[in-house]
Amino acid sequence: MEADWRNELEAWLSPFATALRNKTRRRMCRAYIAGLIDPGDRKSVRPMAARDDEVSYDRLHHFVGSGVWDESPLEAALLAEADGQVGGDDAWLIIDDTALPKKGRHSVGVAPQYASALGKDANCQTLVSVTLASREVPAMVGLRLFLPESWTSDAACLERAGVPEELRSYRTKPEIASTEIDRVRAAGVRFGRVLADAGYGLSAPFRQGLSERGLTWAVGIAFKQKVYPADVSMVFPVAARGRPRKNAIPDVTSVSAQATLEAAKWRRVCWRRGTKGKLSARFAAVRVRVADGRPQRIHDIGAQHLPGEEVWLVREHRSTGERKYYLSNLPADTPIKQLVGAIKARWVCEQAHQQLKEELGLDHFEGRLWKACTDTR
Fold first, then answer.
1. Is 38 left (phi over 0), alpha (psi -120 to 50) or beta?
2. What is the pLDDT of residue 4?
3. Residues 233, 82: Cα–Cα separation, whole Å
4. What kind and span of H or E run contains 176?
5. Cβ atoms 325, 221 nearer than 8 A
6. Is the pTM for the entire model greater than 0.85?
7. Using 50, 70 and 90 to split pLDDT, how confident is the model at 244?
8. Both ends of the chain: CA-CA distance in Å?
9. 319 φ/ψ sector (left φ>0, alpha ψ -120 to 50, else beta)
């Protein structure tokens, strides 16, 4: 049985081993992956090496910790394999992040920050994740380390961790995600829509960047996100005195997403069947224009954002009483069931994060330097 398992692993790793272009690295790659998927509790280097009679700790640690090989061919092989297995017009590209709690402070990117796994601020690393998914099957195609400002403002820490010069400037998570989307698209990976939670959906440049790329998207937002009615008009106010106004303004003021949907019609929608039966909640959806255009003074209110793209505004009312809000640029004739299906498809990414941690020991990794952390993930 073990021989069969090893042979299957050998066949599965073939395109990745070829990309390493070195006999020793290919052998270390097989040993490392075998250590991750075997039933051992700890997936850090020392216990993995102890469970493998053919690989020493020093050699496996050098392979993982030094990161002297070029990751680009491996990433290209991963994208090709993922596209072949789950890519297509019905696939989702899901943007999210996951936190890896750490006790020390020397690993690259470790700092007190919000840890989604714990639901609070904690000392951790944060990874921006990109998942290609279809038919409830996820394939993680990117994990990029986020550097907090406490790191990017400390030149000594950046130098000690070996962070490349071009990556030492502070980048937000949505900026990292946008770069990753471009990388995935440039590789020819096929997907129909981009999904993200409110951590990314709150970023107007992120949403606008997706639309500018011609992508269809559905993202979470906060209840206080300002929107205009879909039929808002731009008018030139008559000046009571002084020079005529040069800039048009909306004929109505923007209001919060919560207020917009207070009187909306609710409908119970089932989006899929779970292990305990159908999953459903109440939803309301209306067409709006997002208040994320350029700032403009409106009467005596001060600078307000002008109407931007026309999109769907969706509100979910869960049985627990919790309410969630979303935006999507799906077409205006999209049925609400399809809207909900798009919004709720993001759950498979959370499942992938959980499996990576519980089964493959993602949060057991002990590398401290940039090259080790980014290459082996």
1. beta
2. 67
3. 45
4. helix 173-186
5. yes
6. yes
7. low
8. 28
9. alpha
